[in-house]
């Protein structure tokens, strides 16, 4: 992915990330868009810190679908960018800070 494409992807994800940050602020988790060294976002509270690469956080690479069980079968369900941030990334972040 070119640097220009990365910037565009981050801009596209910004509204969803902003909603995530509102939810995380309720848990006293702060956000920094970069760690100043590598391409990582930084999330932290008083006790823990979590760095997630821009590649994963902004979904340059990452899951694009999940499966759900319907009766006795698993069905493929695509994730939108909004769902990726507000459901998938939020659950990963909350799990890290709760354990």
Describe this structure in words.
It is a single chain. The chain has 99 residues and is α+β, with helices and mostly antiparallel strands. It has one domain (3-98). Helices cover 45% and strands 25% of the residues. It contains three helices and five strands, in the order H-E-E-E-H-E-E-H. A hairpin with a 7-residue loop joins strand 1 and strand 2. The longest helix is centred in the first third of the chain and has 23 residues, at 3-25. It is globular and about 45 Å long. The model has no long low-confidence stretch (mean pLDDT 90).
Write the layout of secondary structure elements.
Elements: H1 3-25, E1 30-32, E2 40-44, E3 49-53, H2 54-57, E4 65-70, E5 73-78, H3 81-98
Antiparallel strand pairs: 1-2, 2-3, 4-5
Helix pairs in contact: 1-3
Keywords:
45% helix, 99 residues, alpha+beta, two-stranded antiparallel sheet, 3-stranded antiparallel sheet
């Amino acid at each position: 992915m070119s640097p220009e494409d990365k910037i565009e992807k981050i801009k596209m994800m910004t509204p969803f990330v902003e909603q995530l940050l509102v939810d995380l602020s309720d848990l006293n988790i702060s956000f920094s868009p970069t760690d100043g060294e590598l391409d990582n976002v930084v999330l932290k509270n008083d006790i823990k810190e979590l760095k997630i690469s821009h590649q994963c956080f902004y979904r340059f690479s990452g899951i694009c679908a999940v499966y759900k069980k319907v009766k006795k079968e698993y069905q493929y369900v695509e994730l939108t960018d909004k769902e990726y941030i507000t459901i998938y990334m939020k659950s990963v972040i909350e799990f890290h800070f709760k354990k």
